[in-house]
Amino acid sequence: MAKLILLLYCLGACAVSMANEVTVYKCTIKGVPTFSQTPCAEDAQVITLRNVNIMQTNTPQSENTPVADTSVDDYLAVQQIERDIVQLELNIKQYQQEYAQKKQQIDYMTQDKANRLGASSIANAITTETAALKQRFDPQIKQAQQQIEALTQKKQQLSQQP
Q1: Model's pTM, two decimal places?
Q2: Is residue 9 part of a domain?
Q3: Where does the record place a coiled coil (predicted)?
Q4: Does residue 2 sit within a domain?
């Protein structure tokens, strides 16, 4: 049993002492970013990543400790942010279209409908209904725009990191 434990300990020590860095190549093939272990094109960008040592992940790092190059992680995070921004922009367009359709329906207000709403005139009914519609859609649009701004700032921060 002791020999088995000693053998496992030696194998674990060998695994920890393996190479500290991994080289990855980033290429753009037919407009699609591709990552590879070997150069995949003449203009391949070399990205060097440090292996994470499990023993060191729980120890506090000092300010002078070099940080691993996270170019791949940053790139993937930026791509996800761009997808999220596009989705939010589509949501905004959808809200605006739905608002325009409902506003158009309100503009076709009849005197009978205005009377049922308790308005003194068609114009008052249109104003009241438009205000309610605006209260419904403006917060959704504003929230999506704020999310886009926050994602854009995060994207800029990731893009500026060395």
Answers
A1: 0.54
A2: no
A3: 78-112
A4: no
Here the tokens at position 144 are: 């999506």
Is the residue at 110 inside a domain?
A: yes
Percent of the chain residues topping a pLDDT of 90: 38
pLDDT tens digits for range 131-144 = 999 999 999 999 99
Residues 46 and 84 in one domain: no
Query: Over the Cα atoms of the chain, what is R_g?
Result: 29
- From residue 41, alpha-carbon distances to 21, 30, 31, 37, 126 in Å are 22, 11, 13, 12, 63
What is d(CA 105, CA 162) in angstroms, rounded to the nearest whole number?
53
- Mean pLDDT along residues 96-114: 92
